[in-house]
Design brief:
single chain, about 425 residues, alpha/beta, TIM Barrel, 8-stranded parallel β-barrel, 3-stranded mixed β-sheet, 15 helices, about 45% helix, globular
Amino acid sequence: MEIDRRRLLAGTGAAISLMAVDAAATPLGKARSGFLWGSSGASYQIEGGNVASDLWVLEHVKPTIFQTLSGDACDTFNRFEEDIALAAKLGFNCHRLSIEWSRVEPERGQVSAAGLAYYRRVLEACRKRGLAPVVTFSHFSVPRWVAASGGFTDPANVAAFARYCGRLTEAMGDLIHIAATFNEPNLATVVRWGGLSEKYRPYILAMQKAAAEATASPKWASPLVSGESQYAGILEAHAAAIESVRAAGGRFPVGITLAITADRPANGDATGMNRKNAEMVDRWIAAPGDFIGVQAYTGSLVGADANVAPGPGEELTQMGYAFMPEAAEGAVRLVAARTKKPIYITENGVATEDDSRRVAYIRGAVAGVERCLADGIDLRGYIHWSLLDNWEWMSGYGPKFGLVAVDRTSFKRTPKPSARVFGEIARRGGLG
């Protein structure tokens, strides 16, 4: 009975918070009421110490493709209230975050009450500050026991993911605004068209073999680096998770986020680009779900079978991408032409040490958002990647995506000028 009372009170608080979100999002430009403006982070990249995750294993074996150990990351596990308060102070009305499955279920069937309680506190902190939580259930990392049995090629892991999503819904569904099952499950296709799959395949195979030996798990397969072989299982897990969320009483929209590049045909021949778009998007938007999260950073000229490398003199980011603020608009239009589902830009940003270029990128991206809205596209939010300079997967701590700098020793947070600029845009509801 006490649990029911707690959930009733939390649900009332969530309703009040949602009213505040809608009021804060009332547009002054071309954006609409209820439009989400926010920043983001992923648990593995910012929390630190996710020792039960498959990626922790991959980081520590030899050889590894990870340049730097994640270690304490941004220490957000201990500083989440500070980060959420900072996001709210900047003027946002939502915050995108992920839940680390390995903290909730460190061993198969062993559910951590402390892990569930921790993430409930994180979501409560968002609601307290007037931020609508945009939650990702799996942002690349999985528990090491999932990878040990082959990732999502193992039907038992498909079922386990669905149960996990149901547990999250029971424990904190009253606080979730919208949720995505998986983050960029189509990334392997984008990487293949970028010409990187064959280049890194020997290193990835060697790393996975080392992880298999280190864990005595001959079937070891981390989904993040296992490529398109995981797709069928992930699609099944996505559909099963939605059913599990609904069975657990979840009433929030559930969708999926996709890596999208805004491309142009090389030499005027769109054959390759059209095939890439079909492979990158179509199977995923056809899956069950209430919305599509678009995650766009750049685009390329596309030839018959692969992207064309950036030309000499083209401005590149720290990730080696073409500097392309218009990528968000192009990606939204690509997806909108293929589905009637609502769209959120759940990631968009730029890796650069020059914060003036981040400001230019944000302004250019938001101008594209406003053009999409003016054309009647059902676009419901723009979430910048990222709030903090964090651990950027294989690239370590080199690339700087954050609106806020993080001292690697003290963990002191220092907002950059771009944080103020984007905060003002969020408060206005557009460029104004």
